[in-house]
Protein: Multicopper oxidase domain-containing protein
Amino acid sequence: SSKPAVVAATITAEPYEAELIPGKKTVVWAYNRSIPGPLIEAFEGDTVEIRFVNKLTQASTVHWHGMPVPADQDGNPQDAVPAGGERLYRFTLPVGSAGTYWYHPHPHGDTSEQVYRGLAGLFIVRAKNDVLAHLPEQHLVISDLRLASDASIPDNNMNDWMNGREGQFALVNGQREPVITVGEAQRWRIWNACSARYLRLAILGRKIILAGSDGGLLERAQEVSELLLAPGERAEWIVAGPAGAVSLMALAYDRSKMGKVAPEQDIRLASIQFSQDSAAKLPERLRTLPPRIKPVAKKRVVFSEIMSMEGGQHSMQFLVNGKSYDMQRVDLTSRLGDTELWEIVNDSHMDHPFHIHGTQFEVLDTTLKGKTTPAPWRAQKDTFNLKPYQSARILITQKHLGLRMYHCHILEHEGQGMMGQVLVK
Ligand code: C2O
Ligand code: CU
Ligand code: CU
Structure:
C-alpha cells in the first residue's frame, strides 16, 4: 500500500506454559503467546494504533524502542498500565523514520524480568521509496534464555545484577542453532534483544555487507569482517555469496565483567546454507541523510559505578551523572527541535550501551585513551556501546515534547538506576 493507513493490532502480555524442553513445562511471559511477540509492520506516514492488554500480575508498559513517537505514547515508566489493565498506544510515523525497531516493557524496576521471561516484539517501519524493497527479507532476533533443571526460568542472581543477565542459550528466532537458507541475495534484519549479551557477529570465512543500523539504511553499504551488536542494537545486512554452508557466529567479546566469571567463548548462532551462488546488486547510494546541523547546545552524560560494602556484602551502584534514576526528577532539559551535541562518557571499567528514547542520533566520533576516532560512516542510531573509559560525541534532535529516558541498555543496570530523563520543552 502507498496511501497512509491505520495499522491496528492488539498485543496481550500474558503468562502461559510453553514446552521449551521436550516433556517439560516452562512458564513464559510473552506478547500474544509468541516469542518474539508479533511483528508489527507499517509504512512511513501510517498511523499506528496498538491496544495493549496487560494480563501479567505486574504493571507494565510498551516502549517503542528507537521510534519517534510522542512521549505520552512511548511506554514511559510513569505511564504504567496496571496488572489487568489496558490502554491504546497511538502514533503517526514521520517520513524518514524507516528502520528496524522493537518494543518491550519499561516499568521501572521490572523491565529486566519482563524481558528475560519473554516479553519483546519486533517493529519494522518501511519507506515508500525503499531502494532495497526488491530483496527478500529474513529476520533474526537474537535472544537469551536461561532455564533451571526443572525448565523454569530462574530469577536474577547477584552476578546478573552486576554484569547483566546472560542465559545459557543464545537463540535465533527462539531456536538453538537453526539452519537458515539463502537462495538469491537477501536482506537481513538482526536484533540484539538480549538483556546483556554482546554479539560480535561474524560469518566465518566471509565478509558481512552492512546496509543499515538501528534507524534505517546507511548512505552506502559497507563491507566489514565482523559487527558488534550490543544489547538493544540492530543492523541490516545484505547476505549473498557462493553456494555452501557457513556458520553465523557470536565471537568471544570481553566486556570487562566484574568478579569471577567464565572466560568468553565463541558461540555458533546458526548455520547458513547458501543453496546457490548469488550476488548482491546494490545501488551506489542507499540513502541520503540530511546534512549535519550545527549544534546550539551541549550536554554531558556520564555513566559510572560505585562499589560499596553493605552489611559485609559488596554492592554496586550504577549511576548517570552521579545519580540513581528518580522518576520524579528531571535531569536535563532540551528545547524542541534544537540540535544538541551530547558527550557520552563511560567513566567505568565495564562496557555500557547508551540508549535514548524518542529519536535517532548520529555518532560523530569516539575517544579512548586520548585518541579520537571519527565515526567510520554516517548512521542513525538509538543505542551505542561505550567501552570502559571511552566517550562518544553525538548529534541529537528531539522532535516531540515531553519526558524521555536515556539509560544503559544492559537491562539490569537500567533497572538499578543507570537511567536519567530529559524534559523536552
Ligand atoms: Cu529498549 Cu529504554 O529501552
Ligand atoms: Cu528505548
Ligand atoms: Cu550498563
Observations:
- The pocket of copper (II) ion (ligand 2) is lined by residues 63, 65, 355, 357 (CB under 6 Å).
- The two ends are 36 Å apart (CA to CA).
